[in-house]
Amino acid sequence: MAANMSDCNPNALPALLTALGSDKTGPSMDETWSYHGICGMLLYLSTNTRPDISFAVSQVCRFGHDPKKSHASAVKTILRYLKKTRDKGILVNTNNNLYKLNLYCDADMAGLFGRKDPANPDSVRSRTGYIIFLGGWPIIWKSQLQTCITTSTFESEYVTLSSSLKVFLPLKWLAMEMIERTSGPLIKDTRILATVFEDNQSAFYLATNQKITNRTRYLLCRWHWFWDLYNKKEFAIVKCPTDKMKADYLTKGTPKEGFESNRLSVQGW
Length: 269
Known about the structure:
It contains 9 helices and 5 strands. It is an alpha/beta fold and 269 residues long. It has a 5-stranded mixed β-sheet with strand order 3-2-1-4-5. It is globular.
């Protein structure tokens, strides 16, 4: 292993429960391995077969310009977790309906608060996490900080819903085009059933009832673009219980029991 941690002690979690900050006053990284090189390898792994490390990898990749000892320690935490789960990935159940396309989207409101300088706008940026399932197994997932600063849990959840639909709906249309161009009457008569799962009551209500008030009119220009597509039944939105939100472990560090339950529902182990 490039980080010389082949014989390291295994770890049960890929990230600490507290968010990883910039740590400007902390000691510099003193490891002999390349921070950029290891992060690049982890990023490749997290985007292809390991959504369970996506949040942790997203955190460490933000500090490649000036890695501190705390950031190197976070990288080691991921590597120790991979040592414990080195033979794992995603278990695919081929018995599921391949024409069901589901989106689970979640957000963590201002998760960096208290971990960065409060004068820095980044200290209150929220994190988006979403997973798209085809036939019950994940094909696309993302964990990233939001580009705008949101001012409430509702707004951060709604931004996640709106932005993730920009990935979800084109994927549905691509699948429909592939079906239409495939020969065979049984396939041609099939339609993609697209469903979005949202666990925030306010975001769910605004997306489905579409009633603008003085408190929500500021969202109108940027985030309501999908209303017409919802009304045309291009997709359905379902209220999801918080404990069933499969994108939860993409937004923050979670305790072992919750993390493993989330991983089981997504990756099958």
